[in-house]
Amino acid sequence: MDKRGHVAFFCLALFFLWTSAAALLSPKGVNYEVQALMNIKNSLVDPHSVMGKWDGDAVDPCNWAMVTCSPDHFVIALGIPSQNLSGTLSSSIGSLTNLQSVLLQDNHISGPIPSEIGRLQKLQTLDLSDNFFTGQLPDSLSHMKGLLYLRLNNNSLSGPIPFSVANMTQLAFLDISNNNLSGPVPRINAKTFNIGGNPQICAPGVEQNCSRTTLISSAMNNSKDSQSSNRPKSHKVALAFASTLSCICLLILGFGFLLWWRQRYSKQIFFDVNEQHREEVCLGNLKKFHFRELQIATNNFSSKNLVGKGGFGNVYKGYLPDGTVIAVKRLRDGNTIGGQIQFVTEVEMISLAVHRNLLRLYGFCMTASERLLVYPYMSNGSVASRLKAKPSLDWATRKRIALGAARGLLYLHEQCDPKIIHRDVKAANILLDDYCEAVVGDFGLAKLLDHRDSHVTTAVRGTVGHIAPEYLSTGQSSEKTDVFGFGILLLELISGQRALEFGKAANQKGAILDWVKKTHQEKKFDLLVDKDLRNNFDRIELEEIVQVALLCTQYLPKHRPKMSEVVRMLEGDGLAEKWEVTQRAESTRSRGNELSSSERYSDLTDDSSLLAQAMELSGPR
């Protein structure tokens, strides 16, 4: 072999060596992520086959259902809530080191929480609630320095609360309630925490009393053997027991009085919290900002910092002294009764619901004349603004937004207790974070509803074009009114237009949903789809999303799917069967010469003044 041959052979060998190393250690870690995800899949029992299309031979898992990736193709979120999963959680989850969110709540997963989960340094949200996890809380949870939300409630976890976990000062929310935890509770540094429903633990701040009670029990058991020699000690024990019992009675009386006071003054108690004891009241974990702080943060609410206007007030971008970027919502007429109700409603709703697809609240400010709410700043604005901006949202991003918004609403409807009805689902109220992940915001019109109740009747509020027909005509709203609004949101995402703009290019007026259905049947997607997409979309996926939108916007609420069904359909499960059943039922109804659902709905909305622009309806809530 000549010199050139040796060089060529050396280069070829070097190339194969490099490709072999790349297969083991991909620069983006994709191969390791595929292997880890497949191990997670194999350790779980998946009755609905939501992970059925996960492929161990794939190079890139970013198109898999339930998996979200960053723009550079790292797996950053794994979300499989409410899918009846069983089995165990694989320790391989620790290999997905770029994860920012893990949502496995409301399943039947058992076994211990793997200690390897502590490797997830970038994890911000971990929700394993409502499962059957056993064993102790792993100390390794404290290794996740970026963790903000930790939900492990409603499992069968046992043992003491590790000091390392209790000392996680960065936690905004910790819920370990309704387990079998035991022993004294260390001081918990999370801003909000819930440890109720663990009968074998002591309340926070009374560890000494807890230890004393244990000693008292031992002393009483031993007193039978040495009554005469230990009378002084017995006397002390009896005195301590009486003191403890008195304290418990006083605590019970105080707690009863607090409940009575809260019931009577439920709209005021949150704002009467002493700043030094915020953590002791239900919603007091939220930071109470001084008005001057927010003035400085927003440069005195400068118009240059104005990032949004709404029916309830303006939103300003601001900067806290530590560099945190915030959005400050300054309520219009905040000192009026209506403004106060909207203020309290938004605070209560957002504090109750913590989910990666729901807007969280940093804090609030309340003065004699001002009501302000402080949120994390959403760098990509609202879906409504991004649909009008350049460059336009690509097809994959629009699909991800639809699925994220659906998961947020699913959490409100089926995983909160009591459930929450948003009542104003539209593109302007879906915000986008740095990764264009959907975050449902603006809870000013939200209502709490017991799971036993079917609806609530109020004055009609919301935005014309997004309001469900039964709400518009009767004032009755339920989770199905949100489903209707979500269907309209899907059409906004597809078309890039506001609800009342649909069909203008085709000179279509009124009966908008009939026009969308007709366009879908004739497969004239060019009339429906956003021109800015320039045919860069999957026509099959487009047809499926239009079908989901039409299912969500059926006239009768009982015909609309639940949000859990909507999420599954958007993930590719059960849409064909649901669509076929609906079409057969609609064909039967049409033979009875009934008006179409959209025609009946258009009777309620087809007014020239309403078609001119979306209107926000006002009035009492």
Summarize the structure.
This protein is α/β, with parallel strands linked by helices and 621 residues long. The chain is 37% helix and 14% strand.
User: Biggest sheet, open or closed, and with what strands and sense?
Assistant: 7 strands, mixed
Number of helices: 18
Mean pLDDT: 76
CATH topology of the domain at 383-617: Transferase(Phosphotransferase), domain 1
Helix content: 25-40%
Give the low-pLDDT segments.
12-30, 211-231, 264-284, 594-621
- Strand adjacency order, main sheet: 2-3-5-7-9-11-13
Cα end-to-end separation:
89 Å
Proportion of β residues? 5-15%
Task: Return Rg in Å.
Answer: 28 Å
CATH architecture of the domain at 383-617: Orthogonal Bundle
Dominant shape: globular
CATH class of the domain at 383-617: Mainly Alpha
Q: What is the β-strand count?
A: 28
Structural class: alpha/beta
CATH superfamily membership of the domain at 383-617, which one?
Answer: Transferase(Phosphotransferase) domain 1
